[in-house]
Specification:
Helix content is about 35%, strand content about 25%. It is α/β, with parallel strands linked by helices.
Length: about 180
């Protein structure tokens, strides 16, 4: 189909592989089916992976990966579990495909989590958030997060938004990179 303009989640993985050489601590803020956690676990020494749905955490725990810490809790509680600086954090927002659309990430808690994550990022660390404005909460969430990110200091953070402009309600990839200084 396309090489670059393809799956936005593959773009997340490609960005991490191409531009990120430190592979110490990563966070998957939204475990879901575990695809991002699997990817991160193959590159990073330690991965923290969060989800509020017990089925997601139980399914992933069955994989028994030594370098993944699975946490059945909201990403709003990052600081309760992570006491070290992180290199990369990934969010894949919205609801779990094939599951209840009533259980979804929420704009307020996601925004709080992102603010915490930015404090935990090492200098040069990166936050990647895939947002889905195709449903009501997803639209509110992406608007809230983009508004926040657009006001971040350009001296402290580089912020970029990728989206498909020829598709209705297309997913968006927000990237926030912390300055090295």
């Amino acid at each position: 189909m396309y090489n670059y303009v393809n799956d936005i989640n593959e773009l997340v993985h490609t960005i991490i592989m191409l531009y990120y050489s430190k592979c110490n601590i990563a966070v998957d803020a939204t475990l879901g089916n575990g695809h991002d956690t699997d990817f991160l676990a193959s590159f990073f020494n330690k991965v923290y992976s969060f989800d509020i749905q017990k089925s997601s955490t139980d399914n992933y725990l069955a994989k028994n990966k030594n370098n993944v810490i699975v946490i059945h809790d909201s990403h709003i509680n990052l600081e309760l579990y992570i006491k070290e600086e992180i290199d990369v954090i990934v969010y894949n927002l919205g609801y779990l495909p094939g599951s209840s659309k009533e259980v979804t990430t929420k704009s307020d808690s996601t925004l709080t989590s992102i603010k915490i994550a930015l404090k935990l990022l090492i200098p040069g660390g990166i936050l990647l958030a895939v947002m889905y404005p195709g449903h009501m909460e997803g639209k509110k969430e992406s608007e809230t997060i983009v508004k926040f990110a657009s006001k971040l200091s350009k001296k402290a953070f580089g912020v970029m938004l990728h989206t498909f402009i020829n598709r209705d309600n297309a997913p968006q990839l927000l990237i926030i990179e912390k300055n090295f200084n």
